[in-house]
Design a protein that fits this description.
The protein is mostly helical. Helices cover about 50% and strands about 10% of the residues.
């Protein structure tokens, strides 16, 4: 310690320590500050890394696209089934009319 460096002992009893309760937040609402060019969570107040935010957004968008395609395929499948059921209903009604006459 003779090389001119100064060592300060850390005394935990004297240090001002703020302990925050750890909360897990999905950061559902983001505030964009144009002036400071930063992102902040409106719920928990945490600073959000812009790259992480854009990456999460892109992944979510990709998931939505995949889900949209799945739902469109399901609509096509159900529409086909509906048309088949309508044909069956029409045929059954015609059979009933023939049986009644």
């Amino acid at each position: 310690m003779e090389d001119g460096t100064k060592v300060i002992r850390f005394d935990p009893d004297r240090a001002l320590i703020r302990i925050r309760e750890a909360k897990w937040c999905k950061h559902p609402r983001i505030i964009v500050c144009e002036k400071s060019r930063s992102l902040e969570c409106d719920v928990c107040g945490a600073a959000i890394d812009p790259f992480d935010f854009m990456l999460r957004w892109a992944k979510g968008d990709r998931c939505l696209e995949a889900r949209k395609r799945q739902l469109e395929d399901e609509v096509k499948r159900i529409s086909g089934s509906l048309e088949e059921l309508k044909r069956e209903e029409k045929n059954l009604k015609a059979r009933l009319r023939r049986l009644k006459s």
